[in-house]
């Protein structure tokens, strides 16, 4: 299978827990499940997190170790199919005011190039990675 497997186990009616081999856990459920992410929210979180992780070194190198960085992700759904995203919007909240205009433009270009080239999640979603489903027989 994968070199970074994730397991999702049912914990109750419409609630699940995702775990990885490093011991991390996240609660998953439907929209009304308290303290849980929906699967769609997890996809948005993965896209935002991948963008943040991919760009962190570039931004921190210019802004300092204490730089605050928040990445937001939201989606637009396909009007005729509520179970499909039409588009995902990703936005950065980071204070770049201490950087000169020319240097800021170069930094933003580098961040965009890095995300486009190295963000596994965004690239996989954009390019439409096939999913192989295995069910018991």
UniProtKB/TrEMBL annotation:
Pfam families recorded: OsmC
Cited InterPro entries: KH_dom-like_a/b, OsmC/Ohr_fam, OsmC/Ohrsf
Record protein name field: Uncharacterized OsmC-related protein
Origin: domain of life: Bacteria
